[in-house]
Design goal:
Biased composition (Low complexity) (chain B): 297-312, 321-336
Organism (chain B): Polyrhizophydium stewartii
Strand order of the largest sheet of chain B: 3-5-4
Radius of gyration of chain A: 18 Å
Largest sheet of chain A: 6 strands, mixed
Largest interface: A-B, 42 and 47 residues
Order of helices and strands of chain B: HHHHHEEHHHHHHEHEEHHHHHHHHHHHH
Strand content of chain B: under 5%
Region (Disordered) (chain B): 1-28, 276-337
Biased composition (Basic and acidic residues) (chain B): 1-11
Shape of chain B: globular
Number of strands of chain B: 5
Shape of chain A: globular
InterPro entries (chain B): Rab-GAP-TBC_dom, Rab-GAP_TBC_sf
Bound molecules: guanosine-5'-triphosphate, magnesium ion
Number of helices of chain B: 24
Strand content of chain A: 15-25%
Helix content of chain A: 25-40%
Distance between the termini of chain A: 12 Å
Radius of gyration of chain B: 26 Å
Oligomer: heterodimer
Structural class of chain A: alpha/beta
Amino acid sequence: MRGGRKALLKVIILGDSGVGKTSLMNQYVNNKFSTQYKATIGADFLTKEVLVEERSVTMQIWDTAGQERFQSLGVAFYRGADCCALVYDVNNVKSFENLDSWRDEFLLQANPRDPENFPFVVIGNKVDVEESKRQVTQKRAMAWCQQKGNIPYFETSAKEGINVEQAFFTIAKNSLKQEADVELYSDFPDPIKIDGDTSVAKSAGCEC
Amino acid sequence: MIAERSGRDRASGGGGDGAGAQHAGHPDLEPIQYTFEPARVELAHWAHQMQVARAEMAHQPINDPDDPLLGTFDLLSHADVDAASPGARGAAIEPIRIARPVDHARDVVWDRTVEADTSIGKFEILSTDFAPPPREIVRGEPVSLETWRSWFHEGPRLPDETEEQACTRIGRLRVHPSVVREAIFRGGLENAVRPHAWRFLFGIFPWSSSVAERNQIRADRQARYMALKRAWKSQLQNLHDSASLGEHIVKDDLADNIMRIEKDVVRTDRGHPFFASSTVRQITQTDLQRPQSPTQAPLAGSSAARGAPAARTSLPNSGGASLPASPRSSTASTAPFGSQFRLTGHLEQLRDILVTYSTSPENDGLGFVQGMADLAAPILVVMKGNEADTYWCFVWMMERLKDNFRKDGSGMRRNLETMETMMRVLDPGLHVHLKVIDALNLFCCFRWFLVLFKREFEFDDVLRIWELWASDRYTTDLQHFIAMAILDEHRDAIVRHLLTFDEVLKYINDLSMNMRLDRILVRAEQLYLRFEGIARSRGCISDRDVEPFEKTLVERLDSLEL
Ligand SMILES: Nc1nc2c(ncn2[C@@H]2O[C@H](COP(=O)(O)OP(=O)(O)OP(=O)(O)O)[C@@H](O)[C@H]2O)c(=O)[nH]1
Ligand SMILES: [Mg+2]
């Protein structure tokens, strides 16, 4: 990857305590689910190499504690994020209602260059649980996503490994896009596009 | 921000040597932004392992207590730690007096970081500290039941008595509490002694109490615990009644706390045998449609038990026969209003303790905060399921730690700032390095302080750390020295290889369950003594000070003008 573009994608997973953030991350990175995960204290991250659009990139996935008490700490971790995954538990309506404040908090703290277009992904987790327990319909969740600027929406089960890969793939793809856009801005204040993205990528590489 | 990051990284070629070198001698420069590189974390781990292996190979033969070289070694070299470990040196308990004259003429300028050669360049560090020469630290054996009893009147066991029985009728302490504290600090406690000793260490019994006084204290505390627990249970009953009358329940703190507590209780120490027989059953829709009184037994035949061991036991009990049975309701399982889970056994007890705490006057309006379950569970294990005693030990512990749980983060911030100041005094090189790579906020130590190393060591090691911490030998802030000891153990790997905040955090998080406590405890004591030596040489400690220090460590540190 030397000489190429930066290949580290920073992804932040946010959502209420117990919605399954740690479980999702571990299912994605290690293909494992354990009922023994502990409540997250502070923050940690895992990395995974992925191939997106023929580029090998490193995803750095940040898992933070869900209890709002720890948010004063969050600040340092949100900075420089390329994508943010908002997770709720489909069987817990409160965790869904809190997505708004998680999103606002993130935008406030991470302070991304272009908040309107910052890539979010929404994940409704624990769909393996019996249907009768479900409190948030797919329709309702999708309406929210649409209203917030067409955020991609996934329903997953970290336990059964349903849809997890797909959700994170979209996260990777959208982060990469974000990363590319930002570099375009920063390295070349007045970019003159000749023939699209590729030439920009090439010239960026030459700089090294 | 992102642009900065990637741009700089490209300029430095990802290596760091070029970019860092120009800053030599300018520790006050702004942090440099590098990009996280997982390989550097791997490299740092590898380097540390090599360093340990090398030290062990090189110094294996050093087991002669009279080796003249020992005294002149770098205080924190591996040789010193290894030589001082019980295995190498025997386990003589040598009490350490801290009031020792400081002989400046003899003292060495002990500072390996006068010039800090780090991966981001060389830094000149001015240090005029005179530190006492390294002293040999000897760890001791854990205190046995016999030793424990020998410290009390009427301690010896009668012929027809069990050890447990003998321990519960012991009279007044015959020795000075400092003898007990020192012994506990030196070697910790054997498992069998813990339930007895922790009741003293964690503030239930005064050291001076007689057996009659202790019985009285215990009865009082038990009654108070029961009253507190009854209060929230009946509050729940009321909520439940209103709910079943169809009244709209407005947001309720109690129900909210219970929900959050249960979420964590079911994720706490589930792998420990003590909790193995406790069960968790998610409350199903069926249960909710047929509301039941919180004191009623669960519905027979309700389905959907999930992720829980199959067997349901009633009352896994409190092991030690002589300990009063824990106060708990006779029903096998209760699910308070608002519960998501039906818990049994020790998990149910853990929940009740935490709910009681969240509603108690001692709680100070904190409610339940994540991390509390990690602090309460080990105490419940040591107390063999005695709820009331666990509760009061926990309350004592929280009195010391609760600032860390404040919503505004003030307590934790102070903790981390204290660490930073300590580091500036004890290891300026590491301090500069972390500053330059923008990791001086020390978030990497956050979890250590919040749950007192619960997540970093195996269960038994955690108990050991806690009893040393509660022994108050030297200081009531032992956690800071343990934290410094861990950082110190890994400082070379950190300074030589890690270039970003992320890498430090990852490296430190990776250490969890992978550290040797014996080495760290020796180091922590050495660091304490060194710190005290420095503080003394700067006039921050006078010989009139009593130990453990009455003034807080933070105040003392703040008075160290650098
Ligand atoms: N049935 C089911 N349970 C899940 C799923 N994902 C997580 N869980 C369970 O939900 C609980 C919480 O999961 P975690 O991954 O620890 O939740 P978290 O969001 O990381 O929580 P915090 O660390 O407290 O913020 C655990 O008991 C998991 O076993 C899922 O997809 N299905
Ligand atoms: Mg988590």
